[in-house]
Amino acid sequence: MRKLEDWINGQRCPEGHDKPFIHWVEWYVIPYVSVNEEWLAAVRRAIRGPPNPTPDEVVELTRML
User: Fold this and answer.
1) How is the chain classified by DSSP, letter by letter?
2) pLDDT tens per residue, range 2-51
3) Parent domain of 26
4) Rg of the chain, C-alpha, whole Å
5) Fewest beta carbons within 10 Å, which of 16, 38, 44, 51?
6) 32: left (phi over 0), alpha (psi -120 to 50) or beta
């Protein structure tokens, strides 16, 4: 999980906004994917994250799901 968190933190906008957000208008987390599961079945369970999230919001949703 640490590598994922490092990657997420590396996606933050370098422009120095008031809060460190990521320019992701649409992004999703697919919870609990099984190795034997078909891709379309997994995608149907995808949870959409908020637009332009902070890295902490992305990590929090990922951990929760």
Assistant:
1) -HHHHHHHHHTS-TT--SS-----SS-EE--S--TTS-HHHHHHT-EEPPSS--HHHHHHHHHH-
2) 999 999 999 999 998 888 999 999 999 999 888 888 999 999 999 999 99
3) 2-64
4) 13
5) 16
6) left
Strand partners, 48: 28
- pTM of the predicted protein model: 0.81
Alpha-carbon distance of 13 to 46, in angstroms, equals 25
In this structure, what token pair is assigned to residue 16? Answer: 């120095």
- Looking at the structure of the chain, the number of domains it has is 1
Cα first-last separation, the chain: 13
